[in-house]
Amino acid sequence: MDRTDALREQIAGRLAAWAHHAPDASGCKLAAVGLVVADEGTGAGLRGLTGKPRGWSTRAALILTRRAAKMNRHAGQWALPGGRMDAGETPEQTVLRELHEEVGLALPLDAVLGRLDSFVTRSGYAITPVVLWAGTARELAPNPDEVASIHRIPLQEFLREDAPILEPLEGSAHPVLKMPVGQQWIAAPTAALIYQFREVCLHGRDTRVWHYEQPRFAWR
């Protein structure tokens, strides 16, 4: 068994044993996002964030996007591929559809490894995170209506000693959670889902994130 097979089995095994939390979603719009594990490849990765371009690599990475500048909500922000659930869809079906629509990645249902905890946002969404295995995923193409750029962020970047960043938020009992990436950072809710992926899937820790705050710009 090579390292990638071992990592896939580790993640699938830990998710199978994980009792994921589904909060009360009454009155919320339902959405799903994908934590997509793929080879680091030659995508944008950390270029432009650290100034260090990378060649093709079989190190594992998460696929993230930057939202298109012309979008009405959360333009330019870091995002996991995904979106609002259509009537009758499961979170897994939503993520597979959105992956194809946003980044041109067509995956079969057996690429799904499991779910993490759903997260209710200040903007009124209940987001279900679905973890998927994409292998090389060499051919990715951003949908210009939704995606400005696609990034393969090495998993090692999310294991940094300075992660997570917890910042107090005036008027809230809980801090805002951020995950550093390159010389920038990603904010909750996206950062909270990445942090739980790190804790549960990579470290095997029983870590909940539903209580973390989001910065006020993400409340809209």
UniProtKB/TrEMBL annotation:
Asked if the Swiss-Prot or TrEMBL record annotates the protein with the keyword Metal-binding, the reply is yes
Q: Which domain of life is it from?
A: Bacteria
Q: Where is the Nudix hydrolase domain?
A: 28-181
Q: Which keywords does this Swiss-Prot/TrEMBL entry list?
A: Hydrolase, Magnesium, Manganese, Metal-binding
Needed co-factor(s): Mg(2+); Mn(2+)
MF term (GO), any: 8-oxo-7,8-dihydrodeoxyguanosine triphosphate pyrophosphatase activity
Which Enzyme Commission number(s) are on file for it? 3.6.1.55
Q: Which PROSITE patterns match?
A: NUDIX (PS51462), NUDIX_BOX (PS00893)
Q: Which family, according to UniProt?
A: Belongs to the Nudix hydrolase family.
Protein name, UniProt field: CoA pyrophosphatase
What is the species listed in this Swiss-Prot or TrEMBL entry? Pseudaquabacterium inlustre
